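Lecture notes, structural biology module. Today: joint structure prediction for complexes of four components.
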Amino acid sequence: MDEVRRVLPLSRSLLHLLLALQEGARHGYAVKKRVEALSGGVVKMGPGTLYTTIQRAEELGLIHEAPERPPQEEDQSQRRYYELTELGREALAAEVERLGTFVDHARAALGGLA
Amino acid sequence: MDEVRRVLPLSRSLLHLLLALQEGARHGYAVKKRVEALSGGVVKMGPGTLYTTIQRAEELGLIHEAPERPPQEEDQSQRRYYELTELGREALAAEVERLGTFVDHARAALGGLA
DNA sequence: GTACGATAGGTCGAAGTTCGACATGTCGAT
DNA sequence: ATCGACATGTCGAACTTCGACCTATCGTAC
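The predicted structure, tokenised, for the full assembly:
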């Protein structure tokens, strides 16, 4: 799609955000935890990056706020859940494919130990 | 290594630069072409990004200038060849491994079509 | 023969992105 | 009641990327 090309390449935070959201709706803080866990603590998302990235992703139409998913915890404070839009899913797929090219290439050249 | 962790996560340009150099010594313009080709034209490295990234990579000790590789073309103008340092190779490997985690994850979730 | 596009290197300022300190408030445990 | 984890957010500084511009060489086409 042409829309997709408009948002590529994704910035690092945008990529990490979409990656975390691809597993289902999550709130900001949960995204932060997920990204840090998956990167082995290398990528640290401070609040500055986290919330400005969420805002940017919403502006680009990559995510939107979900209607309060978890049924049990209606009470639970001021959490805001986000989920991928169709464009978000497409952009993520395109970016992963692109990155995959580099990663495959590098893995092959790096002794092919995987 | 601790040195490696110091430079992680790599910025996009830094990653692309090291990725292109991992195949052997190259000069700036050749790096630019390689990155653009491997990304299917999505990543465009203008001169601003290209040369400031090379400078940054040298400062970080990730690359260093190579002693004029190609034997045939001694004459060929003012080309500057760069190659990865040991640290550069380690940082690249670490970053590719980290990114690979995300990519594998995303590929599996994205229908596992690969 | 000279004009053009590709190769090759580079600077600069503006725009975009990331960082971390601070602010605010809730919740559960010691 | 105080502390750390949870949760959201702002702000300014630092870092990164972008694209316009500059210089110069080379080969091809007009």
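Point to remember: The mean pLDDT of chain A is 90.
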